[in-house]
């Protein structure tokens, strides 16, 4: 390998290019961060939406709880209305199930169409047990999603629905 000395012109070129690059990056980074920041900010885990359901009034019979909240999708904010089927299990724990059928997304109802002690989906006769577990032999292949729950001032709060491991 030949060792050629770096000329003064080359040295200045390298130095100015390097310094210029750092300065450009320093100016551009805040602008890029500002532009994409809302996209990077997802809904924080542990975000709960308030409902008007009193926890003390929950029983072992599922009740429909409607609630709404503001959803920020990048730069766009919208009002979302959602629903949960909520009850207390035999251990006294609150169970809040998503009403969205895991087959094709219709809305299930408790004891619909005279199906005792089950959630019923009218679209293709899907059935779920009270725990949200799908009944084998009916179209849904997964259990209903479950909402994380919390209580504030005696009122139920619901998080983001997640997979139900029943
Ligand atoms: S969408 Fe519920 S059974 Fe098909």
From TrEMBL:
Catalytic activity, as annotated: 2 oxidized [plastocyanin] + a plastoquinol + 2 H(+)(in) = 2 reduced [plastocyanin] + a plastoquinone + 4 H(+)(out)
Enzyme Commission number(s) of this protein:
7.1.1.6
EC class of the enzyme, as a word: translocase
Domain Rieske stretches: 62-158
List the membrane topology term(s): Single-pass membrane protein
Q: Pfam families, per this entry?
A: Rieske, TM_PetC
Primary location group: membrane
PROSITE patterns per the UniProt record, alphabetical: RIESKE, TAT
Q: List cofactor names only.
A: [2Fe-2S] cluster
**A GO MF term:** plastoquinol--plastocyanin reductase activity
One GO cellular component assignment for this chain's record is:
membrane
Give its localization. Answer: Membrane
Q: Does the keyword Membrane apply?
A: yes
Coiled-coil boundaries:
none
**Job of this protein:** Component of the menaquinol:cytochrome c reductase complex. The Rieske protein is a high potential 2Fe-2S protein.
Q: How does it assemble?
A: The main subunits of the menaquinol:cytochrome c complex are a Rieske-type iron-sulfur protein (QcrA), a cytochrome b (QcrB) and a cytochrome c (QcrC).
UniProt family annotation: Belongs to the Rieske iron-sulfur protein family.
Query: What's the protein called, per UniProt?
Result: Menaquinol:cytochrome c reductase iron-sulfur subunit
Q: Which organism is it from?
A: Domibacillus epiphyticus
Q: What is the lineage of its organism?
A: Bacteria, Bacillati, Bacillota, Bacilli, Bacillales
């Amino acid at each position: 390998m030949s060792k050629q000395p770096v000329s003064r012109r080359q040295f200045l070129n390298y130095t100015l290019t390097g310094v210029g690059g750092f300065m450009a990056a320093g100016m551009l980074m805040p602008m890029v961060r500002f532009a994409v920041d809302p996209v990077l900010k997802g809904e924080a885990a542990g975000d709960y939406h308030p409902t008007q359901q009193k926890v003390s009034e929950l029983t072992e019979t599922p009740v429909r709880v409607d609630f709404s909240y503001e959803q920020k999708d990048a730069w766009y904010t919208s009002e979302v209305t959602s629903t949960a089927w909520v009850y207390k299990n035999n251990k006294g724990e609150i169970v809040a199930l998503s009403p969205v059928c895991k087959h094709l997304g219709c809305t299930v109802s408790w004891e619909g169409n005279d199906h005792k002690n089950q959630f019923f989906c009218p679209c293709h006769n899907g059935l779920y047990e009270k725990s949200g577990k799908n009944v084998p032999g009916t179209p849904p292949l997964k259990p209903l999603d479950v909402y994380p729950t919390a209580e504030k001032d005696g009122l139920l709060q619901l998080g983001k629905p997640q997979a139900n491991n029943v």
